[in-house]
Design a protein that fits this description.
Blueprint: E1 2-7, H1 13-21, E2 36-41, H2 45-54, E3 58-60, E4 63-68, H3 84-91, E5 95-101, H4 117-149, H5 154-170, H6 182-188, E6 199-204, H7 213-224, E7 229-234, H8 236-243, H9 247-257, H10 263-275, E8 277-282, E9 287-294, H11 299-306, H12 308-312, E10 314-321, H13 322-328, H14 331-337, E11 341-343, E12 353-359
Parallel strand pairs: 1-4, 1-5, 3-9, 5-6, 6-7
Antiparallel strand pairs: 2-4, 8-9, 10-11, 10-12
Helix pairs in contact: 1-8, 4-5
Length: 360
Amino acid sequence: MQIGLVGLQYSGKTTLFNTLANIELDLSGSLKEEASIEVVKVPDERLEKLTSIFNPKKEVHATIEVFDVPGLRMQDDGKVKITNAFLNDVKNNDALFYVIRNFEEDSVPHPMNSIDALRDIQFLETEFLFYDMAFLENRIEKLKKEIMKSKDERPKLEMPLIEKCFKHVTEEKPLRELELDSNERKLLSGYQLLTLKPLGIAVNFDENSINKTEEIVDKIKTELNSDKVDVIPFFAKVEYELSEMEEEDREVFMSDYGIKESALSKILRTSYHLLGLQSFFTVGEDECRAWTIKKGATAQESAGVIHTDFYQRFIRAEVVGYNDFITHGTFAKCKEAGVWRLEGKEYIVNDGDILNIRHN
C-alpha cells in the first residue's frame, strides 16, 4: 500500500516525509523537482511486546510506502497551477494526505502569500474535482461511442455508474462521499479517480501554536463536515528533532511540548484506518512478524499473505487474540483458559490476532 503526501510548496511536506522515512533533513533550501518514495516501518507496541516475550532472532514490522509528491509552487503568472506531472504523481497512490501549512515564516513565504489552511484544502479539493470531472465526461463520451458501435454489454452496464459519479462531482462533492457498493468500487478502481481516494489532512503547526491546534483542527473538521476525512495536527520541525533523539530524551521533549503521539505514529495509524487495514502476528523463536491485511480478510486469505502456498494448502489456523495471550502469557495457558482455538478458512481475522497456519 502506498500513501502520497501532497501539498503546496513550503508546507513542511518534505520535512514530514524525511521524518517518517528517517532521512537526514536537507538544509540547503533547494527545492525538490522529483518525487521520492520510501518504505516505512509501521510502529506497533504489540509486536515489540511479543518480541520481548519470545526473544526471536528477528523482529519484522509491517511496512507501508510513503510517496513525497513535489510541492506545488507559484508559476510565472503569480498563480499556483496543477501540472500534468503533479497529477500523474498523485493518482498512483492508494490514499492521500494533504499537508497543509498553518504557521508564519517570513523566510519561506506561502505561495499564495497568506496563511489560510481551509483555503489551501479547498484549492486542492477543487483542482482534484476538476480532474475527475474532466475524466468522467470523457469516459461518458467514449462509452456512448462504444455502445453505438459494439454489441458488447459492458459499456451499457458501466454507463449508469459513470453518469452517477459525474453528476456527483458536478455538484462539487468528492467521490469519497458517494455511496458505492463493492462491485462499483471494483469497476472504478482502475480509473484512479483522485477524489475517490481515501483522504487524510495533516495540518503543520509551529511550536508557538501548540495551544491553538485543537481549536483550528476542530474548525477545519466543522467546515469539511465529513466523516470520511481524518484531520490531524503535527509539528514538522519539532517532529524532525524528535526523530533524531534517543528514546528517553524524546519522551521528555514530547512532554515539554505537550505532544502525546508522534507524527509517525499518528499518520501511519490514520493511513491504516483510511485504507481499511489491520495487522495480525506470527511468533516464534526465529521471528516475530506483523502482517498487513484488509479488514474482513479470512484466515485462508491471511495465510496467503504469509506464503501463496499456504492459501492453497490451508487446513486450519491456530488463533489467539493478542490481549488474551498477554493476559495468560503462554500458548499452553491460553489453551487451558479456552481462548486458544482452531479456526477454519472462513474465519474473519481480527486486528491483533496471533496465527499459526496449519497446512499440508
